[in-house]
What does this fold into?
Amino acid sequence: MLAPTFMRADQLQIHKDERDATIRVLGLLERKELVHVPSEWHYRNITAKKGFNMKRLGLRKPLDRCEVGCIGYWVGREMGLTGASAALFVQSTSPSYSPMPHPFYDLFYGVTSNSVTVAAAADATRNFLTLGQSCWPDVLDSHDIVGID
It folds into this structure.
């Protein structure tokens, strides 16, 4: 199998460090190093240090045992940002911060749901890196994710 060809940072209209961090997050997702945490109820019951939930900008619970965040949060963390700064990084891609749509907006905000799995997030992230868009509707269909909350 051929190695994937990711678009360059300038093609994605993001900074090189953001692209590199997104590639690292794709690796975390594909290796299942980020564990899907479907809702707040489960935070206290998981043993993983790194949790994934598309509805969370970033959250540490309980007693800093587990850190849970969305794709954007983990991109921020992979860029070396602290938890709070990583959450602000995600928020900075929202249209409320800029009149121009940010290239990350669709990947970070295209779906905000507890139902998005790690595999689906990996597919959307790979689509973003190779196509320049996440293609969330197709990803959700291919993973049979329904009932978006």
Summary: The chain has one domain: 10-142.
